[in-house]
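Retro notes
What went well: the complex prediction finally ran end to end.
Inputs used:
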Amino acid sequence: MTKQFKILYRTVLILLAVAAAMLAGALILWTIGADVTKTYSVIIFEPLKNKIQIGEVIIRAIPLTVIALGLSVAYRSGIINIGAEGQMAMGIIAATAVALAFPGLPKAVLLPLALTAGAIGGAAWGFIPGLLKAKLHVSELLSTVMLNYIAAQFYTFCLRGPMLDPAEITMGSGTPQSMRLTKAIWLDRLVPGTRIHTGVYIALFLAFTVWLLLWRTSWGYRMRAAGAGERAARYGGIGVAGCLVAAMVISGAFAGLAGAVEVAGVHRRAIEGITSGYGFSGIVVALFGGLHPAGIIPASFFFGLLIVGADMTQRMAGVPANMVLVLQGIIILVIVATRMVLANPYLEDRVRRRYCRLTGRSREE
Amino acid sequence: MDFAVNILALGIPFSVALLLASLGEMFNQRAGVFNLGCEGIMAMGAFLGMLVPYGAGHGAPVPGTFNVLGLLLAMAVGALLGLLFGLAVVTFRAPQGIAGIGLQMFGVGTAGTLFRHFVGGTQSVPGIDRLPIPVLSDIPFIGPVLFSHNPLVYLTFLLVPAAWYILFRTPWGLRVRASGANPRAADSVGIRVNLVRFQALAVGGALAGLAGAYLSLCQVKMFSDEIIAGRGFIAVALVYFGHWRPLKITGGALLFSFAQALQLAIQGQGIDFPYEFAVMLPYALVIVVLAFSRESLLLGPTALGKPFNREMRT
Amino acid sequence: MEPNTGKITSLRVEHITKRFPGVLACSDISLSVGEGEVLALVGENGAGKTTLMNILMGLYRPDEGRILINGEETVFRSPGDAFAAGLGMVHQQYMLVANMTVLENIALGYTRAWSPLALDLDMVRARIDEISRKYGLAVDPDAYVWQLSVGEQQRVELVKTLCLGARFLILDEPTSALTPQETDELILLLRKMTRELSIIFISHKLQEVKNLSDKVVILRRGEVVFEGSTADHSSDDIAALMTGREIHLPRNDAPECEGKPALDIRGLKVRSDRGFLAVDGLDLSVCAGEIVGLAGVSGNGQRELAEAINGLREVEEGEILFFGRNIADHSPRDVIDAGMGYIPEERNTEGIVPSFSMKENFILKDAGSPRFSARSFLKLEEIDRNADRLRTEFDIRSPDTDAAAGSLSGGNIQKVILAREISRMPRFLVAVYPTRGLDMGAAEFIHRRLLEKRMEGIGILLISEELEEILDLSDRIAVIFKGRIIGTLDRGTADSRKIGILMAGVRNDEAV
């Protein structure tokens, strides 16, 4: 009965959270005079209307999944990575650099090379705050945010400078973007008529890998222990500092890889705004998915839906696309607030007592 | 000489937004709460600050009324957002770090959404002009550096000693300090720690809102998505390594702003240094300072970041 | 907050019950204090004394029962209500803000000096002066609390409580951190104060109880087991009543310590978090197959000692020889691999990962070992089997091995920790307050297992505050006081009175 009660308790709280988020969002919509029901229906239903749109949702879900998987590794290990945005940018730079440097290599070599470079780029950017925290106790919350801004500047620098498309220079249009990357790096399109690419397989594979790592290996066990009970882990002989750094490296690598996949699968060149907030959306996806691959996959689909839908609301309901950020913010606030409520043993105990009194069941079951 | 005067004269107004937000965050952290959503509150403040003058246009009964209304609106909504944050982290005891990021996203998103709907594009506002103090502003060197700024700058620097007085010489400041340093002790003498935290968050939010409004009304005289550019986060970091003391925080804010002014001045001189790297400097500086500051909580709010629950046995 | 100007002539507590999740802290407790009386509330750790006093001070709400002051029932919704009624408490952990001055700390509660824009610090200063002179308690209002010694801080707490208008004092372990001289001074002071107020004080030091109190109430595991007048009972009687039955479990002869001891600590110095030397030149040795009980009031360096032994705290000076090898300043992993077992003080935060299941907690120290993982992949079946086996063997009550360890009762959590440590076949065990807050059944179970291990030749360092436990289990008893071993007793000659005296810091056996 206890397990049953727990599941009921959790589901009710999560539903309340979603309802609260929608209510708060409705308030903003009302302020700008938008039609609330129309907006929400556009966001939720429009993207599902045809194959192309569903494809758009899926291609957004891919980087979201990969980033959220990496973040869940970090959060479960007790380190809060807010730097996915910057780590993704660094990954894109690395992957693009490789593609630009070795255009002649065959696909079987160049593609994995570029993706690996992306992962390494992100990993390096994640290693810095990890090390700072482990050795100097610098709050990762602040260092990762600062690194985001630094990476963004570096990215712009690269796009306007060393990686600028020579064609842009000759044509004088100056759009900051790299040149179109060789086909050898492209991830193939999967479903004709849509932009869905083989990155889907990568995302699913990584989901499986994360699950395997965290719940089936001794490494993952130690990282989870370091996150769930840092003192007990230390008392148990687990090297917590090492776990933190490893978690940040993995998390950064995933974000970097997500960036490389975006370049290889969708845009086929490095452009401005390519990270388009995936780093932050990834945080919401990770939380919403309960920091577990099984939850992250549907969560990333849901948030991909929100993102595509929000784009459409601009046209169809006159609601700016920034609305998606509003909803994400509220969802984060409500999820972490209710999670604490869930975790509070005193409250749960009191609620269970009342529930048992109401339903007449024994306390001990 | 001119060069130096330029940097100093530029650096001081640059520091206002950072300083206002930091002073607000100082009250938050002294009470035991850190608010990463400061950035989001500043964004809302920036939008609301310019909204009123933009919407109302000209024809104010007294020149500048709409500007003042904009500032007040920014402060009011800022306080409200601070209280909202309090609901999450004080009442529901949510982890302050992630909740702060949630608030930041909410603030930035709402500001962007409302801006695009009500204003749109790159509308600029006349904003608030400089107000040189007669006589004093004519003094060579000191004049342009200290006395030729807009009124908000003067107000902000008057706020520094005021904040010191409030924190160290009033009963409320005493309650705030106790709530962050030893909430159990405060509770044991009858202080309502959670209420004090809500109050501090409201004050912090109001100041953050004002800081944002300063940016849109005085510094850039318009609103854009990138207007805050991380200042909210830097403000949170500043309070940390300013050891929660108004004077040190002011020093830190000035340090960053002078660095920024220096960067602009150097580029103005035509020295070939990539623009983007120069922009990176303040953020990198934050990391470096964080790495080398032994932030000793024993000096300040020892219970920073921990929710208070009387019923919990330690 | 108006101080109560009338005297409190009687305070009664009737049928108070208080529950926390998994723990019954107070069960049907009743007691009363008359005018100018001093009542000693005695009992071991976890007996419910502090909880009861916190209820009296409005920090907790009782689940059942009532409080009567001067015959009238009063309900305290917050500490403010308790102050208004004239109650004042000096807690064991001082409720002072370290980085504020004495003046500011007292001003914190002295709302009469508050006006919206200013603090009338002069008014507070005057009040402090008044109280200091009246009771003979000198304090320096401008000193920062972190600069003061423990004794001075306590004086500040007393002055604070009196400034805020207390007509009834509650003192929680008032002499726990004082030197013998400071203790004597305090007792004299308190006796003088009974002209004006009544006092309840919590203690388990027999000297104080005898010297100061008029009445004694003894609590054990949340219940009142005795109530009576101090003068009518000798300290032996009180000690006996405090520790309960004196039955010892059957035992083997004391072991021969052939060759080197298993654990040999020499001249150990360890710093506490606050920077002072918590362990200050400690020498102790434990042989294989021997249980050495380390008795002492909590806060005399036990925690730092246990942490240093297990590699969790830096060692300033000295050696910790484990089977001949110095393990001081080694990593926790090294110490664990060398064969050290550890049952830590805080079971919920240091012993288990509360959100992990029971079976996951069993492998906390061995996740990477060949037994539970093959090439880094966890051997799930073996982990399950291990969990089932341990659960049966140690009689751990839970629906299944998947239940979150944090949701188990205190006794079962301790069993999980014990099971894990024992099943690892350690060469030595450090057990810190292993039965704190547990019911009799769980405590007895743990004692039995410890004795079993002793018979198998494993040395055990038992750190505890409960004299009964120490007397039951130990072959030798060492008493720790202010970071050093103040005396050792053999099993044959030890009794709770002698230990209690040593715990209070008195070296020679003076007549009590």
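What we learned: DSSP finds 17 helices and 24 strands in chain C.
What to try next: split runs per interface for comparison.
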